[in-house]
């Protein structure tokens, strides 16, 4: 992971963790221990799904830039399916409070997306690698003479 990739990841991770911690506290106050457990499951699910997707998308952009957009759309579909399968598997659970889980899942997802969008807008990532462009220019000039 390059340094700007790590910065983008951290800029999405930190606000999500803050909102997750607040959700755990609020859920514990409102719904007790099961509410706190539900909130923890919601935050962990969001961090896992969004974090893995971000890392996979960054690796794809680096290795196969032509597949970047298609991979982004595919990862979006996989995220939705993964969360849907998780929701179906635990819809009637008594392990945790499902309302606290759902609200935390929603809040954490929205915060992750907003923080990630803000991080990308603030990032100063070059669209063209100047070193590679210069090397290609020198190679072209060298073969022309």
Q: How many β strands by DSSP?
A: 0
Mean pLDDT: 86
* Uncertain spans: none
H/E series: HHHH
- Helix share, percent: over 70%
Characterize the biggest β-sheet: none
Distance between the termini: 39 Å
Alpha-beta content class? mainly alpha
Count, helices: 4
Fold and architecture overview:
The protein is an all-alpha fold and 145 residues long. 85% of the residues lie in helices and 0% in strands. The chain has four helices and no strands. It has helices spanning 3-63, 68-89, 98-122, 130-144. The longest helix is centred in the N-terminal third of the chain and has 61 residues, at 3-63. The chain is elongated.
Q: Which features does this protein show?
A:
single chain, 145 residues, mainly alpha
Quick take:
With 145 residues, the chain is mainly alpha-helical. The protein contains four helices and no strands.
Write the layout of secondary structure elements.
Elements: H1 3-63, H2 68-89, H3 98-122, H4 130-144
